[in-house]
Design a protein that fits this description.
The chain has about 280 residues and is of the alpha/beta class. The protein has three domains: about 1-80 and about 165-175, Periplasmic binding protein-like II (D-Maltodextrin-Binding Protein, domain 2, 3-Layer(aba) Sandwich), CATH 3.40.190; about 85-160, Periplasmic binding protein-like II (D-Maltodextrin-Binding Protein, domain 2, 3-Layer(aba) Sandwich); about 185-275, ACT domain (Alpha-Beta Plaits), CATH 3.30.70.260. It contains nine helices and 15 strands. α8 packs antiparallel against α9. The chain is elongated. It starts with a strand and ends with a strand. The relative contact order is 0.19. One of its GO terms (cellular component) is cytoplasm. Its EC number is 4.2.1.51. InterPro entries: ACT-like_dom_sf, ACT_dom, Preph_deHydtase, Preph_deHydtase_CS. It comes from Sulfobacillus harzensis. It catalyses: prephenate + H(+) = 3-phenylpyruvate + CO2 + H2O.
Amino acid sequence: MFYQGEPGAFSESAVHHYFPGEEARGLPSFAEVFQRLVSDSHAYALLPIENAYRGTVTEVWDRLVEQDALTIWAEVVQPVHLALMAPAETTLDSVRIVRSHPQALMQSRGFWGPRGYSAEPTLDTAGSARALAESPESGVAAVASPDAAARYGLRILAEPIEDYADNRTRFWLIAQRKPPCLPEGNRTGQKVTIAFDIPHRPGSLAAVLSVFAEHSLDLTKIESRPRPGYPFEFRFWVDAALRGPDPADAFDALHRLKEAVLFHRFLGFYPAFAS
C-alpha cells in the first residue's frame, strides 16, 4: 500500500493502524503516488484528504477528481499528535526555525507562532525530521510525530503541540479496483462522494442540494474548488452519509443529479471507519 511521505509519517501510522500486516511504501510526493495509481491497476494508496481543524488537503482532491479511473474505497480517521523535535544539542530556547508539512505547521501554529519562530514548509512531516537528523542545523527544529523522533534519533523538545487535543485527519483508500484489504476498526457508516459543475445562475446549487435532502442523504461536507478552464467559476464536492446500509437512495440521487448539472463525477460509495 502506498502513502505520501517518509517512514514515520502520519500516513504510514494510519496504514499500520487500520491495515495491520499490510506492507506500506512511501513516495515523496502526491504526484508520484497518483502516477503509480494511474499506471498500475493493482496499486492502492491511503492518502490524507481533510484535517478536522485545518481543512482540505486540496492537492489530493484536485488530483483525484482529474483521474476518471480512480475510486474511493474506504475512509479512515486517524488522531494526529504533533511534537517539536531536534538533534540532542538543540534546546527549546535556541529554536528559531520550524520545518514541517504545511498542514502540520497550520495545526501547531498556536505553539510556534507566539514564540516568534519562522516556519519553513516541507513535503512531509517525517521527511523534515529525517533531513534534520541527517544534517543538523543550529536553531532548527522539526514538527512531526513522536514516532518520527524515535525513528530518526531526535530529541522531543515539546509535546503535544497541536492546537486542538482532538486533532484528527481523515484518509481515503484510493485505487482503480477494489483493494484486497479493507480497514480494521470501528465502522461508523457508509458514505458517498460526488463532484459536479452547475450552471452559473441563481438557484442552481439549491436545486442540486435539494436532491440530497429528498433522498435522505446527510451532507457531511460541501466545498467549492476552481473549475478548470472557467475563471471564477467553481466545481463542487459533496460528501454525504447514508442513513442506512441500502445504497439505493445514493444511486437514485445520482440519477437525479445528472439532470441538474453540467458535469458530474461519482467518486465512490464506501464504508467509513474510526479508531
